[in-house]
Automatic annotation (TrEMBL):
Lineage: Bacteria, Bacillati, Actinomycetota, Actinomycetes, Micrococcales
Name of one Pfam family that matches: TRAM
Domain TRAM: 12-71
Family: Belongs to the class I-like SAM-binding methyltransferase superfamily. RNA M5U methyltransferase family.
Entry keyword annotation includes Methyltransferase: yes
Protein name: TRAM domain-containing protein
Domain of life: Bacteria
Length: 443
């Protein structure tokens, strides 16, 4: 079939067609990969290794189409009943609830698929081939690359979300999640990924005319709350409402509507990972607590606090964050650290200012360590170029998007940084998301 010419293709695919597919791999974004007449088809709700019948949901592009499974003809040993009945493959694809696109896959396999996505992104966009040390097997290392959050294997990876956003159907006013791949609201009877506290207050099935979004937040050390975003209103609900969170036994103030990791244990997992990465740099004599250390995209200061736990209370660090409310919280959360400064600024603008600073300041930055935790789009070419020019001794990069991380890895490596550590954490079970932590050292 490989040599078949384009002219010999059967009729072009059209939305609504149903075709049989051999599913061969996993792609970024929670979809599997198959081929049909030489064209790539990204298939939702499949598992690599399966044979499925799938319905075409998008066919505009010449190079690829999208489809969703309607029937599993030969199932994977890793297929499970979906954790969310309303997202199950037995439903019409247009009526499946979205946000749990790996919910039909055994947890361990979800993690090995995420590891494949990370390794593939690093190879294709980062120019980094993950390799096994002598005597270790790469497949085994990859299977363990994405680490579970504590307790998730015992709980089946459900009940973890302390933050959920629901939407309101503009026609009926009914509250629910969006459907997979669309902005249609799907009525559901429960939120299996959400914590018991979130489920308790979720207004599922209620009518809320005039409301656009319903954010449910269950803080570790405060009562759960519901933040309503009204239709046509621009200000973010909960921007002025401060709640208390706990990271193990450390308290943090956070805006109810501001950024905080959604998995109950994710802040502790990332705090510990960053603290340990910094501790290793300290042990290797590569960390200078008195240098110009930075926590970029710093939110409420979680990772600056992690840096301080490894480096000691004498740490000098500046957090840079664009949301003023989060900066206020960071200032409060880091108030025990004499050398901490919390700034409201866009990272690119702040780095541009630092690049204009006097030589002694630039020298302190060169001896420093930068922790960065950008949004999904990553730091991007502009910020990585600025970082390369500032040239800090170490960069500890926390990433929620593996492809963005891989692209930024390429830029940093080309600027003379060596990737010396890579870990990944499954803090979004039953979705395709995961978090990575990469350590770079100036060569
Ligand atoms: C993934 S969160 C990380 C927050 C924090 N490190 C934590 O772990 O809680 C990204 C943060 O970057 C902020 N942000 C997004 N774009 C930014 C920019 N261009 N400059 C500064 N901050 C930005 C967001 O407001 C958000 O608080």
């Amino acid at each position: 079939m490989e040599h078949m010419s384009a002219a010999a293709h059967s009729a072009p695919l059209a939305v609504g067609d149903t075709i049989e597919l051999e599913v061969t791999g996993i792609a970024h974004g929670g979809v599997s990969v198959a081929r049909h007449d030489g064209r790539v088809v990204f298939v939702a709700d499949a598992i690599p290794g399966e044979r499925v019948r799938a319905r075409i949901t998008e066919a505009r592009k010449k190079s690829f189409a999208r489809a969703a499974v309607v029937e599993v003809l030969q199932d994977s040993p890793d297929r499970r009943a979906h954790v969310w009945a309303e997202a199950d493959v037995s439903r019409d694809p247009d009526h499946r609830a979205g946000g749990a696109e790996f919910g039909h896959i055994a947890l361990e396999r979800q993690r090995s698929l995420k590891a494949e996505v990370l390794a593939d992104a690093m190879r294709r966009f980062g120019g980094v081939e993950l390799a096994a040390e002598d005597g270790d097997e790469l497949a085994g290392l990859l299977a363990e690359l994405v680490e579970p959050a504590p307790g998730d294997d015992a709980s089946g990876g459900t009940g973890y979300r302390t933050r959920v956003r629901l939407h309101v159907d503009p026609e009926t006013g009914t509250v629910g999640p969006y459907a997979a791949r669309s902005r249609r609201v799907i009525p559901v009877s429960s939120l299996p990924l959400a914590s018991a506290e979130v489920n308790m207050i979720a207004p599922l099935g209620d009518a809320m005319p005039g409301v656009a979004t319903v954010d449910l937040v269950a803080p570790a050390a405060d009562d759960p709350r519901m933040l309503l975003g009204l239709v046509g209103e621009k200000t973010r609900a909960g921007a002025g409402d401060t709640i208390r969170e706990l990271v193990e036994d450390r308290g943090f103030l956070v805006r109810a509507g501001g950024f905080w990791q959604v998995h109950r244990d994710a802040p502790a997992v990332l705090f510990t990972a960053v603290r340990d990465a910094i501790a290793e740099l300290v042990d290797d004599d590569r960390f200078d607590p008195a240098a110009g250390n930075l926590d970029l995209y710093g939110g409420a200061g979680l990772l600056a606090a992690a840096m301080a736990e490894a480096a000691g209370p004498g740490l000098k660090v500046t957090t840079v964050e664009s949301e003023a409310g989060a900066t206020d919280d960071a200032a409060e959360n880091l108030s025990g650290l004499v050398g901490a400064l919390a700034l409201t600024a866009r990272v690119d603008r702040h780095l541009a200012e630092l690049l204009r600073a006097a030589q002694p300041v630039r020298d302190r930055l060169r001896r420093g360590t930068v922790v960065l935790d950008p949004p999904r789009s990553g730091a991007g070419g502009g910020v990585t170029a600025q970082l390369a020019e500032l040239s800090p001794a170490n960069i500890v990069y926390v990433a929620c998007d593996p492809v963005a991380l891989a692209r930024d890895t390429k830029s940093l490596r080309e600027a003379g940084y060596e990737l010396t550590g890579l870990r990944a954490f499954d803090i979004f079970p039953h979705t395709h998301h995961f978090e990575s932590l990469a350590v770079f050292q100036r060569a």
